[in-house]
Amino acid sequence: MLGVLLLAADQFSKQWVMARLRTEGAFLVLPGPIDLTLVFNHSNAFGLVPVSGEMTRWGLAAVNLVVAVVLGGVVLRRPLSLPVSAGLACVAAGAAGNAIDRIHDGSVIDFLDAGKLGFVWVFNIADVSVDLGVGMILADSFLRRRARAT
After folding, report:
1. pTM of the complete model
2. Which end of the chain has fewer CB atoms surrounding its CB within 10 Å, N or C?
3. Would 56 be classed as within a structural domain?
4. Residue 22 domain-assigned (yes or no)
């Protein structure tokens, strides 16, 4: 259920920002540390994958979909701790959200701009979902390892 809610929030927020900002580079200054800046990301996180047109689009979409399906399957089929299940659901939702963008729009819609905090990348809720999920899995692993050591 968490994954479905995150995926819905991601897709809704992207549609809202597209309707509000409309063109790449358009921005909305907000009070607080986050502004909105519309960016179309044709690469992956941090721009690590060189952009090779449609090959990049469909290759990254396929990788995102495989990750989402595999992790979703693990969550549904294996008994896992709550933090690990939630973490995997978060990562799967983020992968699915960005895959949907690539398939539908040709690129990932990014809009959360934390430049006021010195963060140079613009990101979206799917990206936050992946980061949150990885953090939950790592925290659970660390806490379990620590509990076994004492």
Report:
1. 0.89
2. C
3. yes
4. no
